[in-house]
Design a protein that fits this description.
The chain folds into two domains: 194 residues, Rossmann fold (3-Layer(aba) Sandwich), CATH 3.40.50.720; 222 residues, 3-Layer(aba) Sandwich (Rossmann fold), CATH 3.40.50. 43% of the residues lie in helices and 14% in strands. The strands form three sheets. The protein has a six-stranded parallel sheet with strand order 3-2-1-4-5-6, sandwiched between helices. Helix 4 packs parallel to helix 5 and helix 8 packs antiparallel against helix 9. The longest helix is centred in the middle third of the chain and has 32 residues. Bound molecules: uridine-5'-diphosphate-glucuronic acid. Uridine-5'-diphosphate-glucuronic acid binds next to helix 8.
Length: 434
């Protein structure tokens, strides 16, 4: 089938290339011409495992076209809207403006019977408003909502092998058209569930807010473990083995970051507030506060370890908000670095793929390797669980630091190994936080 995908960011490019790999003829439309050029010449702006190969082979075999011209959507029978819905301002809800203008740019090229499918994360009510816009401007086309649950780092796999597909639709015809798009995935036994538009919107937002809540929950339990002498990591693991709870997103640490969990949790709080659900609003606002305060606690602990602030140096390993991505949006490690720099410390941050971060303090020094960051360091903090950090050699690093103190906020290192090599190894669970 001929399909268009409008917006080729972290969601849209993966979606477009994945649909091409399923055998569809896909046109990807992106208004940012610089991004179009980079996709076409194979120098993707984003680090996402498997994506470059998928895009390259789709471009080579002609199943994927990438342009900046909305007119190329003409002839496609399904049009996916995958543009961003950034926060309007901190705590002020989502900006649906990119969705509205993507739809407006598409309308002149729609044909009767075309299906427009929103994939972006939005509060309930957005799809109904866009459906009304579409009905006014192109009455013979229909709007559906099909939320995406891919996580960065595993985006290609998550797109091609989703846990289930959710179709927010207003007609059987729309569901049938989406079945045609996803047939190869459905053939593998993947379920699809039909909902109304608002349910499809809410289930996505609720999923991210729930994952954020789990992380803030376990971080509060980790604090209680620190005050009670309990083992926080073992507590988390045992909670996770209760099948009613589940193990994912129960890793205590620096807290969550990225372009989704923080924004979506605040967005749900904003939505709840405007719906008059004040307890719900306060609940999600508190999840966000716990997340922010978590890194503040860790920064304070680090500062307290240093006998003299002036001239002290901290190495932070990992700048991205999690491993296997170059995304630094709301990265907890960069937020932590800012607090330490403001306290007068010198901070060097290493990351295998991030070379600098927009908005980062200019005093923050970016280096490539852990070894460079740790040279002369008084404290080393592992902030992102990049696999390469597991293979660091504690014996070789010992003479290069000023003080062999390592804080493993993602507990991804082999603690025995580091302790045996005379390092003062701490995971954050035994930090006295107050
Ligand atoms: C998240 C959701 O997991 C996806 O389902 C969703 O589609 C996506 O947002 C989106 O809305 O686009 P992502 O932001 O890529 O995906 O990252 P996660 O793997 O969920 O991790 C989010 C943050 O939580 C990271 O900073 C991670 O380090 C942190 N985290 C995760 C913890 O602190 N503890 C954990 O146990 C798990």
């Amino acid at each position: 089938m001929r399909v268009s995908v409008i917006g080729l960011g972290r969601l849209g490019l993966v979606h477009a290339a994945a649909l091409a790999s399923l055998g569809h003829r896909v046109v990807g439309i992106e208004t940012n011409t610089e991004r179009v050029g980079k996709i076409l010449d194979g120098t993707l702006e984003i680090h996402e495992p498997g994506l470059a190969d998928l895009v390259r082979s789709a471009l080579t075999d002609g199943t994927l076209d990438v342009t900046s011209q909305p007119s190329t959507a003409m002839g496609a029978r399904v049009h996916f809207l995958t543009v961003g819905t950034p926060e309007l301002a901190f705590h002020e809800g989502f900006n649906a403006g990119y969705l509205e203008s993507a739809l407006r740019s598409l309308v002149p090229f729609l044909q009767p019977g075309d299906l427009v499918v929103g994939k972006s994360t939005v509060p309930p009510g957005t799809a109904v408003a866009l459906a009304a816009q579409l009905h006014r401007e192109s009455p013979d086309a229909e709007l559906a909502w099909n939320p995406e649950f891919l996580a960065e780092g595993t985006a290609v796999r998550d797109t091609l092998a989703p846990q289930r597909l959710i179709y927010g639709v207003s007609s059987q015809e729309a569901a049938g058209r989406l079945d045609e798009v996803y047939q190869p995935i459905l053939d593998t036994g993947t379920h699809r569930v039909i909902t109304d538009l608002a349910t499809a919107e809410l289930v996505k937002l609720a999923t991210n807010a729930f994952l954020a809540t789990k992380i803030s929950f376990i971080n509060t339990i980790a604090q209680l473990a620190a005050t009670s002498g309990a083992d926080a990591l073992q507590t988390a693991q045992l909670l996770g083995t209760d099948t009613r709870i589940g193990a994912s997103h129960l890793n205590p640490g620096l807290g969550y970051g990225g372009g989704c969990l923080p924004k979506d949790t605040r967005g749900l709080a904003y939505y709840a507030q405007h719906a008059g659900a004040m307890e719900a609003a306060q609940f999600f606002a508190q999840v966000d506060i716990i997340n922010t305060v978590q890194r503040q606690h860790i920064a304070e602990w680090v500062i307290a370890q240093l006998l003299e602030r002036q001239g002290s140096q901290v190495a932070i390993l990992g700048a991205s908000f999690k491993a296997d991505t170059d995304d630094t949006r709301e990265s907890p490690s960069i937020a932590l670095a800012h607090v330490l720099i403001s306290a007068g410390l010198r901070v060097r941050i290493a990351d295998p793929v991030v070379v600098a971060s927009c908005g980062a303090d200019s005093r923050l020094e970016f280096v490539r390797t852990a070894e460079e960051a740790m040279r002369e360091a008084d404290v080393t903090l592992v902030a992102t669980a990049w696999p390469e950090y597991r293979h660091l050699n504690p014996e070789a690093l010992l003479p290069t630091v000023r003080r062999p103190l390592i804080v493993d906020t993602r507990h991804c290192l082999d603690s025995e190994n580091w302790r045996n090599a005379s390092w003062d190894y701490r995971s954050m669970f035994n930090l006295p936080l107050h």
